[in-house]
Amino acid sequence: MRWRAGSTVALVLLGTYLTIVNFVPQETRRAHWWLPDQGIRLGLDLQGGIHWVLGAKLNVAIEHELDHLRARLLEQLAEAKIVPQRMAVESQQLVVELGSATDVEKVRSLAEETRVLRVAKEEGSTLVLELQAAWVRDVREKGMAQVLEVLRRRIEDPIQGIQDSVVSRQGDDRILVQIPGGQMDRARARDMLKVTGFLEFKIVRDQAPTEELLLAKYKDGLPEDTEIVYEREKTGNRVVSAFLVPKSPDLTGDYLSDARVSFDRQQRPVVHFQFNADGGKIFGELTEKNVGRPLAIVLDKQVYSAPNIRERIGNQGQIEGRFTSQQAADLAVVLRSGSLAIPVAIEEERTVGPELGADSIRSGLRASLVAVALVVIFATVYYKLSGIYASIALVANLFLLLGIMSIAGATLTLPGIAGLVLTVGMAIDANVIIFERIREEIRNGRTPRAAIATGFNKALWTILDANICALISGIVLFQYGTGPIKGFAVTLCIGILTSVFAAIVVTRLLYALWPGDRRVAELSI
């Protein structure tokens, strides 16, 4: 009995301590080692922030897939010594213009062998190919998975990311992004979404201060398979230099394993990057062959820096540019997260102010306190001393619930507060089942002590059955729900576990204290 009472009281006191700590300011908590840094976090609807619904342009993914198939088809045609007059991706279709009917038959055969392409239209020596319906669905699904992963990495980055942010899928081609609080301003967040993050390393063939001066060197036109890229000021967007580089990159950012912000000797922010083993080998060979030449580091067709290669470089390097510390940090996040091959557009945007969130917290707390007070009054009036026991168990349940959420660093949302109020009702419901069973046993002539033992034993499986069903529903809501629904599910599931513990353990312990082993003529129930 002492062990049971001591461990239960200690557990409830721990939950109470963790709950009260949430009301201590963050600065005070960090200043004292005995106060935990982590506590219950507030969601977007309670502390304000940015709410976006993004639309993913999955048609781009289909065009990328067709472009990839186009390259494969060209290789196969080259082996068969067939040179198409034209082969291009247009409107999510692959248009192939050939010279003879024999070539048309060969291309049709190669397309059928892929089991991915099918002939949509044939006019003379022109074939129009498109992806099979099943393959289109697969490409769109993979595209959405890639977009979700890249956005999660950027927004929830472990170094520069945002705590408590939400990035989840909505429907077939939409993504919900919620950034709580003032952790990131809207302009910076928009910039991170716009940057696709496609990093390329290209050996510079020529350069000039402006595009006009560079074009003046090539009066007959630019060399084949080359293009002009620019280095611009990060603030005024003015062109600083123009570079002539090959269209195909010598190395891409797909080989990057890490990117972090550091500072050079003049304390200017730079982005230090590192390649994996394969990328380090390619980068080493590239720099060894081009010692003395500039290497353009290009991100989304914009040159960030073009340093001269002084010696062979291994698997590490750095990007120097005219950017601030924050811009360097954002660039590192983009490089770490990978390239966003499929563009996204903001279809819905809402801003929740902190004042609205504070009002929601006040209303939610008021509703919770009123619910607890009404339940306590009902239980005390209807069940007398047993109702007081149920009220004590109810308060212990709330402290345990908030304590567990504090330890887990769970996010409390407005629907989560609704789940908290619902938990109050569910917690007292278990006590009602127990008390009514005890009353029934007393009416059948059992002594109070025997009625208590039988009542708890017979009500146990009824309580577990009802709460397990509710727990399963909560788990399903958490697994398939998004944003606020998950917040409700978290509070509901933890509340179910703590309410069962409070009803079965705490209430039983109070009955063990009084009447306990004493022989009483009547039980206050």
| β-sheet strand percentage | 15-25%
Average pLDDT figure: 83
Strand order across the largest sheet: 7-8-2-19
Proper CATH architecture of the largest domain: Up-down Bundle
Total strands: 20
Q: How many domains would you count in the coordinates? A: 3
**Count the helices. How many?**
14
User: Which regions contain 5 or more consecutive residues with pLDDT less than 50?
Assistant: none
Please tell me how large the radius of gyration is: 33 Å
Give the biggest sheet: 4 strands, antiparallel
CATH superfamily of the largest domain: Multidrug efflux transporter AcrB transmembrane domain
Based on CA inertia axes, which overall geometry fits?
elongated
Tell me roughly what share of residues is in helical segments. 40-55%
Give the structure's gist in a few sentences:
This protein is α+β, with helices and mostly antiparallel strands and 525 residues long.
